[in-house]
Amino acid sequence: MATFIIRRLIASFFVLLAATYIMYVLTALAGDPLEDLRTSTAPNALQLIEARTQLLNLDVPPYLRYFIWLAGVAGCFVGNCDFGVNVQGQDVTIQLTQALGQTLQLVTTASLLAIIVGLAIGITTALRQYSGYDYTVTFFSFLFFSLPIFWVAVLLKQFIAIGFNDFLRDPEIPPVVIAAFSVIAALLWSSILGGNTRKRIIVAVVAGASTAVTLAYFNLADWLSDPSLGIVAVGLTAIGIAFGITAISTGLRNRRALYGSLAVAVLAIVLYYPLKFYVFPLMSLGLFLGMLVLTVALTGAVGFVIARRDRWQAFRTTALVGLLVILVMSLDQYMSFWEAYSDSSRIRGRPVATVGAFTPNLGGNFWIQGIDSFTHLLLPTIALILVSLASYTRYSRATMLEVLNQDFIRTARAKGLTERTVIVRHAFRNALIPIATIVAFDIGALVGGAVITERVFGWTGMGQLFVKGLEATDPNPVMAFFVVTGTLAVLFNLVADLVYAALDPRIRVNA
Amino acid sequence: MTMSQQPETSEPTPTVTDAENNAQLKEIAGLSQGQIVRRRFFRHKGAVASMAVLTFVVILAFTSVGLSIGDWRVPGWWQWNWSQLAPVQNRTVPSMTLVPQFLGGPGINIGDHPFGQDEVGRDTFAVVMRGAQQSLMVMVIVGLVATTIGTVLGAVAGYYRGLTDSILMRFTDVIITIPVIVIGAVLGRAFGNFGAGVLGVVIGLFAWTGLARLVRGEFLSLREREFVDAARVAGASDTRIIFRHILPNAVGVIIVNTTLLMAAAILLETALSYLGFGVQSPDTSLGKIISDNQAAFSTRPWLFWWPGLFIVIIALCINFIGDGLRDAFDPRQKRLPGARALAKSAGLDRAAIVVTTRAQSRGDTAVPEPDKPDTPPTRDR
């Protein structure tokens, strides 16, 4: 194993070296870095040309200049990185750190959501193969896969940002829209849950009616101007989460796990006001993360204590319930600051942002800042999810179908296991093996990220570093971008192989 | 009805597998490989419809405004040209109306400028058609170049194995490390001025990596088969074995992936042109039209809608065709005949068939090869 990893690392190192050489030379030859000065009419143009030539070593031909650059980057191994300077003489290393931060902020949420939603859709379509739901989802994944992202992004800016902001000025959902949403919800849920005609009709009626009632309530209470959940909605959601997670994770027949989950839900209701008045006002990022970890540990312990058998299974279930419930409670807290955010002097009632990563000089506490990030992330995240959803959906559907066709699934059904056990424990777990490698692979590609999206939404991330550098025929920023993305891609490619070998016993890593 | 309920003394009834295989064999009896593939492809309604739409778009794009390659010009049947400045009519609003008169609309009418005009009077239809020509051309050239390189390198690496394989695959690793959009942007900046054809060639020079790996995999497994041994024993040369014996068997993988590659290529070209690293003025492409006009969305949205619509139509059609081809070439994809057809062909009663087809459909796939799965196609973001 160790030999395999070391061999792969050495090979990857040389592959990366060759790739950076190609990139460097091509970038340097792609244009003329002195173009703007040559056509300049400034009296000191000659001196400026001279100065830039000195600064960027332009007198050295690119295939040799690479080694000057390489010497700087090699300093990374001794903790002294030097990615050189850009055309303006700014230090690229500092720009790189800033760009990395923005890109991670932009792409992490989108990728996580795309993976979760894509898996959920892929697996439900596999379970309802050749249904209307399956065909609809298939068509839309092809459609989304064929959308140019810059086109989607401009449409989102136009309709979601401008249109939705106009709508929020006087949020009154028209009855036609309520009816349309209700019908869609009814069709969607009845075809996902499936079953016989009777069950489908019941599901459709319940889903449609509850959607209609919720939207009508939004209108009546002017909810969209001042959204909130309150203790009743939080409590009901917590109980719903407890039942839902237990049903998928252990099955409702495992009474002790169910009691554990419900105990967590009750705990949430009891702690609702103490948290809201004593903990949430003090919130900072560190405290928030600490609170999440503590919640997982404590609620997991609840399940662990209550269950007598299969204690880790109960731990998993209640911890997941606890995590989701605390997130719902945080959502409630965010909502309570929504009106303050929306009416603030920097926002002026147009909350959905189209440019940049944050509102400058906004101020405010943790929750206000959180809402600000959310409104800025909303549009690029939707755009990114739309175009990357399709490959996850198609891939997880294909993998799940492949697993469901295996003999051991038939055996599991034949020996009378419940459908939940067959699907979750026998099929889903095995389908996750190839999916896990894809996810590892995609995390590696995460930072290289979103060149076009960043451009459209005006984020100064890695993509912008690359595009700006290339426009100025400036290899240093371009190479800083490429070294980081290339290294991560190569490393996570190795991780993907190792994950696959670790999860699938049929694969042996032979050194 | 299950098998355990069968009286043990009776004649052994044909199992489901037999019934289904019979139906399937009967269906394809006497057909060549190509005929089988064609039949399966034409069964995929989405793919056939896409084929028709794509053909229409291609013909429309290339005949309407004619061709212009270098100094060689062929005029089209459309009255305007993509660079011609026409007098502005009706404040550049599109003249096409589609609501018929009996519905209270102005009737189906094309008018002088069906897609409208831009602010200096250029006809949007002509510009979009020229853009579609360029984007289609880049797409096809990328497909041809990348497929040729990928197939040859993959075939040589997979057939000769050993040192050749190692060198070629390390080379592939180097190229695959550089994301296509990154290398495309760098090359587009260097070669965008030379026109769409050159842009297509240089992108194609770096887009072959995925295909090379797949072809290599196919060759590695096909070269161990008996028919290759037979050819070698009969004295066939390496070239002959590669091109006459192995390649025809790998053609499914190649065609399917070329299609998907071309769908990715048109999105890549439009994205590069949008970023300013693709086709350059005075020529145009679908991505460049959108890039030039995105600020005018609120005043002249048609300059934005039409090129985008054409990108989506072309990419969607090609993706559907690729899906149809995959179904047609994939031998594991058994399309189960309906229970009635099955019963008719095997002379069994329907209840038995239903039970058995379900069992069959769950159990007939072979155990998957225990190696890393193909990565799903990724998108430029």
Structure description:
The complex is a heterodimer of chains A (511) and B (381). Chain A has 511 residues and is mainly alpha-helical. Helix content of chain A is 76%, strand content 0%. Chain A has 20 helices and no strands. Chain A has helices spanning 2-29, 35-38, 45-56, 62-74, 92-127, 132-145, 149-169, 175-193, 197-220, 230-249, 255-279, 285-306, 311-336, 338-343, 366-404, 407-414, 419-445, 451-457, 462-471, 475-503. In chain A, α18 (451-457) packs across α19 (462-471). Chain B contains 14 helices and two strands. In chain B, β1 (67-69) and β2 (72-74) form a beta hairpin. Chain B is mainly α and 381 residues long. The radius of gyration of chain B is 27 Å and the shape is globular. The chains are: A mainly alpha (511), B mainly alpha (381).
What can be said about this structure in brief?
By secondary structure, chain A is mainly α.
Question: How does the SSE layout of this entry go?
Answer:
The complex is a heterodimer of chains A (511) and B (381).
Chain A: H1 2-29, H2 35-38, H3 45-56, H4 62-74, H5 92-127, H6 132-145, H7 149-169, H8 175-193, H9 197-220, H10 230-249, H11 255-279, H12 285-306, H13 311-336, H14 338-343, H15 366-404, H16 407-414, H17 419-445, H18 451-457, H19 462-471, H20 475-503
Helix pairs in contact in A: 1-20, 5-15, 5-19, 5-20, 6-15, 7-15, 7-18, 8-9, 10-11, 10-13, 11-12, 11-13, 12-13, 15-17, 16-17, 17-20, 18-19, 19-20
Chain B: H1 16-28, H2 33-43, H3 45-64, E1 67-69, E2 72-74, H4 124-160, H5 162-177, H6 180-191, H7 196-204, H8 209-222, H9 226-233, H10 238-275, H11 286-293, H12 302-329, H13 339-346, H14 350-363
Antiparallel strand pairs in B: 1-2
